[in-house]
Amino acid sequence: MAVARAKTWIDQEVLTHTDLNAEFNNILNNGEDLGWPATKAKDLDGQELILDADADTSITADTDDQIDFRMLAADCVVFSGVAGQANVFNENSIDVDFRVESNGSTHMFFVNAGDNQIIIDPSATITTADGTLHIHTASAGAATVSANADDLVVESNFSGGITILTPDTSASNVFFGSPASTAGAVISWQDSLTRMTVGTNFAAGFLELKSAVNVTAITIDADQNVFGTVGTTGMTDGFIFIPAAAGAPSGAVAVTTATLAALYFDTTNDTLNVYDHVANAWLSVGVSLPNKTASTPSPPTPRKRSPAAK
């Protein structure tokens, strides 16, 4: 507020020491009010504006086009208007978290300074993440994230996931790489080609499909050879199955290519059938099964010798 007059003087009034002291006391006791309300811009000329009693919290602009907010006598927040510079929070690198609220969440964006983690949490229920970046819609339940895959954690109490959207004629990709090969393996989908690809992008790369507890079920090597599990005479699992039914196949194979062959087993006639894409017909290959009894041909009837031959 502005400083008010102690007294309004009239023409030819005598100035007494009492009135003069009252005016000076009014100014001295209300010095901060002399410049307020402001009628013009205040120029601090880079001087520090101290805000607290122990003089360690202040605002300065001693660097051109930059504002420094200081706490504990060190820069805490720095705002810069210079291209190539950065607006910095926690410049002093102390264990003070950074939190952004939304309309419905107190921790919509949260930086855990002590653990070097970032949390996006609409549910506002966690302050410690399971990984470097934890997107937490809601708790999935008690779980421990593997240290081999904790850079990004996406968690929900219902169905959750990550969506990659691109134009119809562009590919949606996930690349797996290293310094030696930044795209050593690729998962890709392109809508206009209706094609999903999963595989390696490395000259010696091979692909393994695993089941059970990290057991290799199928291997595709760098020469596109396909291998199943190692066979034994007494094996009961690890087979590659083909379609089978009672009766010879009669349908035309929908995928027509001269470089691939479709297989079918006829359980009635014990035949393996291969589809000929050139003739558009099934070719039957006979199979001898150990549980089928093979017919034994009858011995030939002995020929009688005529009397003349004696």
Structural description of this entry:
- 4% of the residues lie in helices and 28% in strands.
- The chain has 310 residues and is mostly beta strands.
- Among the domains are: 98-141 and 148-155, no CATH class; 171-202, no CATH class; 208-232 and 240-286, no CATH class.
- The strands form five sheets. Strands 1-2-3-4-5 form a five-stranded antiparallel β-sheet, with no helix packed on it.
- The longest helix is centred in the first third of the chain and has 13 residues, at 17-29.
- The protein is rod-shaped and about 135 Å long.
Note the topology:
Elements: H1 17-29, E1 49-50, E2 58-60, E3 66-71, E4 74-80, E5 88-89, E6 98-100, E7 109-112, E8 117-120, E9 133-136, E10 152-155, E11 171-176, E12 185-190, E13 195-200, E14 207-211, E15 215-220, E16 226-227, E17 244-245, E18 263-266, E19 271-276, E20 281-286
Parallel strand pairs: 8-9, 9-10, 17-18
Antiparallel strand pairs: 1-2, 2-3, 3-4, 4-5, 6-7, 7-8, 11-12, 12-13, 14-15, 15-16, 18-19, 19-20
